[in-house]
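Support request from a user on the community tier.

User writes: "When I paste my structure tokens into the form, the page sometimes reloads and wipes my input. The last time it worked, I copied everything first. Here is what I submitted, just in case something in the input itself triggers the reload:"
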């Protein structure tokens, strides 16, 4: 499984890139609004830190607006993947951007049928939001399982990118199902590294070494 970090914070991205555990980055307007500087400058800086897919989300809701923004973001760097909403206009824009050899991440997916339509439109990634489904008492991980099965049935090259991850158990479940990618907040990626038994084991090793007097 590949890991993307879901943030626009340069320091968080830099820390995880130095750990060598991320393959890409996903951003969205809400994340970008928390940071200083222009979106273009942030994207360029992120691309300099991470050599992998960097999702840049459009804010337009109409086809032509999405295409204009998508073309612009794609022109900033070869690693940019244009992020589009799963709407009728988003599907139309996806088809046209893909025809121009621009990669697309279809976002705000909440059903396997939406994911199937996006794969048919040629999306590079589909992003089902599992946490938001869990929030309304629907089983988010079930959407991942069904989507992975459908894509396997028909050999779609589109990758299943698990989004709206709330905790490490979501990542474990997605990995066991066989999802291609998880996009994860910095905090949760750091939680994956830590375990109380690792900490206590390290403390014991160091205490024993100190007692040895060596």
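"...and here is what came back when it finally went through:"
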């Amino acid at each position: 499984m590949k890991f993307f970090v879901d943030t626009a914070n340069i320091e968080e991205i830099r820390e995880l890139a130095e750990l060598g555990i991320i393959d890409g980055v996903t951003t969205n307007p809400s994340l970008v609004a928390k940071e200083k500087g222009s979106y273009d400058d942030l994207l360029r800086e992120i691309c300099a830190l991470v050599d992998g897919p960097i999702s840049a989300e459009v804010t337009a809701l109409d086809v032509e607006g999405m295409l204009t923004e998508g073309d612009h973001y794609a022109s900033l760097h070869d690693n940019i993947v244009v992020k589009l909403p799963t709407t009728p206009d988003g599907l139309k824009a996806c088809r046209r951007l893909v025809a121009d050899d621009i990669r697309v991440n279809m976002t705000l997916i909440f059903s396997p049928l939406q994911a199937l339509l996006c794969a048919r439109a040629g999306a590079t990634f589909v992003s089902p939001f599992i946490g938001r489904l869990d929030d309304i008492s629907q089983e988010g991980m079930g959407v991942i399982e069904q989507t992975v099965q459908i894509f396997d049935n028909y050999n779609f090259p589109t990758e299943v990118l698990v989004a709206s991850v709330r905790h490490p158990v979501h990542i474990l479940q997605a990995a066991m199902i066989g999802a291609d990618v998880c996009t994860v907040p910095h905090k949760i990626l750091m939680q994956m590294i830590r375990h109380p038994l690792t900490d206590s084991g390290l403390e014991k090793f160091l205490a024993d070494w100190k007692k040895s007097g060596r």
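Agent notes: The reload is a front-end session timeout and is unrelated to the input. The CA atoms of residues 38 and 134 lie 33 Å apart. The mean pLDDT is 95. Escalated to web team.
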